[in-house]
Structures are given as C-alpha cells and as structure tokens.
Amino acid sequence: MAQGNTQPLDAAGMAHIQGRILAAVVLSQILGGAGLAAGVTVGALLAQEMLGSDSLAGLPAGLITLGSALAAYLVGRASQRAGRRIGLGSGFAAGGLGALGVVLAAVIDAPVLLFAALALYGAGTATNLQARYAGTDLAPPSGRGRAISVAMVSTTLGAVAGPNLVMPMGQVASGLGIPPLAGPFLLAGAAFLGAGVVLLALLRPDPFLLARRLEADAAASAAPSAGPAGSDLSGALPRPGTGVYVGGAVMVLTQIAMVAIMTMTPVHMRAHDHDLADVGLVIGVHIGAMYLPSLVTGVLVDRVGRTPMAAAAGVTLLLAGLTAALAPASSLGLLVLALALLGLGWNFGLIAGTALVVDFTDPSIRPRVQGRIDVLVALAGAGGGSLSGVVMAGAGYPVLALSGGILAVALLPVLLWARRVNALAAAVPDSGSRPAR
C-alpha cells in the first residue's frame, strides 16, 4: 500500500504491512550483524598490533562508539525528516565505507587513518542498533517487545558467524597482501553496504512516515482517542516524560558494563596464550547471547513487564562480572560462561529499556528522541571502552570485570524511580494500551 494512500487501514492491512516491514528489517539485521563482529573481535587486537601498546587497546572501542554516537544523532534526525528508509540506509552505507577504510589503514600502516575509519565504522554499529526501532513504528503497544526482539534476534545469524570467520577472513586477507587482523573488516564493509541497499530498496512503505500519517489522521478525526481502524496506534495522550529517562538510564548502564568487560576480554585472553580461535569462540558466544535470546526476552518484556526485566538485567550483569573476575585466565569454559552472561544481561536491559522509551514517546517525534537516547548509549559505551584499557593496564582484568558487574547494581535505584512512572501510567486513561510496567 502506498504511503500517500489516505484510505483507512484495517487490521489485516496493517498486519500485512507490518510483516513486510519486519521482513526487510530482518534481512538488513542479518547482514548488519556480520558487520558488527569485526570491531568487537579484532578491533582492539589490530590497534594493539599497530600501536604496540596494551594501554591503548581499548581506544578502538571508544572510537567506534564515539562514531556511533554521532551517527545515532544523524540517523535519528534523517529518519525524522525523511523516514527510516533513508536514515537507516545512509547509516549502513557510512559504516561500510568506514570498514573499508580500516582495511586501507592496516595496509599502509596509518594509525591516524585507522582511528578516523573506526569512528566512521561506528555508524554501521549505531544503525544496526537503531534498526530495532523500525519494527516498533507500526506494532501494537502490547507487542512492542516482540517487535524489538524480531529485529534483534535476526542480528544473531550474522553476528555469531562473524567472529568464527576471523581465521578464514584472516587467511583471505593474507592471500590479498592485507594484514590478517584486517580481514574481518573486509566482511564488515560488504555486510554493512549490503544492509544499506536492502533497506533502501525494500523498506516500503516507510514505517515511521506511515505511522506519523496515521497519527495525524487520528488527531484530525472526530474522536481524538480513537486511532485508525485496526491500527492500535490510538491514544495520542501526553505521556510521562520520566518513562523515557528510565528507559534511557537502563540502556546506558547496561552498555557501560557490557562494553568495558567485552572490549578487554580478547586482550586478556591473548595475554594468557589463547589463540584467535578461542577468542572467536568466546566473542561469538557473547554476541549470540546478546541477540539470540531476544524472542524470549521480548515476550517476557511484554508479559512480565519492562521494570522486572530491567532488574533481571542488573542481576545478570553482576553475575557476569563476578564470573569473569574469579575465572582462572586459562579457563576457556568459565570465560565463555562469563561473556554469555554479559551478553544476556545486555539483552534484557536493551529490550526492556527500548520498550520503555517507545511507550513514553509521542509517535510524531520518536526518531529524534530515539536518536538522542542512542547518542547517550553510544557515549556511555565510548567511555567504558576507552577507560577499560587504562583500568586493565593499571589494575588488571579481574578488577575491571568486577567493577563492571558492580556498576550494574546502579540499575536498582533507577528502577525504584520507575515506580513513580508506573503510578503515573496507571493514572492515565486508556493506560492499557501502553503496557509499561
């Protein structure tokens, strides 16, 4: 159905469009997931090799997340103006160019170019994360958690395969005269560019532009509280702003804890004689735990509630930090367990926090607000990634891991604050259409 069509949409028509939107998002996320793996798995190792310093090994994660912060803002603005298709497609294209820039920097041994390219590569990681919002624009409020989860679980296919392709891509790179650690960025470049093409070609009708039109039609109707037939986008009532802050805080804290521990784990493993295959296994399990449980998490977020699942994120991240801190450096099994818990805790926090943000944001301005929140999330990750190398160099990996786990406990006072949000939401008429709990 064309976006300019002014005919009302019935439930069947809305479900059909939502299915097409999710299909395009799923395909782009599979490709985008493969692009994510390069920076996570070998970014720190490539910087360590080029710079000859462990203390700067956390810098790539910081640069990637700083780049993703700027990209989150720009993608949000572009989506607000021109729709998700243009915003997300452009972000993935920029990320693909950044990945190819990393390869060039490794070939000519140019650290300055490496840093600039890593920042641009961050646009792909930010866009891959922001694509989760595209699935919620037309989703009914009671199904937003599941819509987010469909987008995220699709990332798993590429994201889990990516780290396990480190060795093969390294061999391909060597055959082309490229440093082996730059090989995964060849894959990332192709994957991000492919994801951008998919969204530009297939994300039609644009979900945000259609949702905005439906909201405008509802506002102009004789019954302002009733949305278009079957759209379940009704109830454009004022929403408590604190809900956005709670959702954002949950995502920020989980991001800091996750990035700080994840970034330094490959360096810690290499320092204790684990090979790249072991590193790829640990990071592959970690990324799988970040995304694969999403379908279950989405259902729990919708049925159990946003706040209980955010609390579960804090507890899980604390367990991850404790396990990583206490695990012997030679124990591959315990490192796999720690990074799996780390990914799972992040998954709980991201889906619960995202659902809260969508619940309490007016549909007409969602992309702009979502982009700003993702800026904060990216900056939090940048701080965690950049400082992780300094902390590890000065105090060791166990202290870093334990600190990340303890930080997650800060979610609890945030969730106590969320009680006020719950009370406000319960007091708003038709609150049943906004399932924030």
Automatic annotation (TrEMBL):
Residues 21-422 form the Major facilitator superfamily (MFS) profile domain. The chain crosses the membrane at residues 21-45, 57-76, 88-108, 114-135, 147-165, 185-203, 244-267, 279-301, 308-327, 333-361, 373-393, 399-418. Gene3D superfamilies: MFS general substrate transporter like domains (1.20.1250.20). It is found in: Cell membrane. InterPro entries: MFS, MFS_dom, MFS_trans_sf. The keyword Transmembrane applies. It is a multi-pass membrane protein. This is Major Facilitator Superfamily protein.
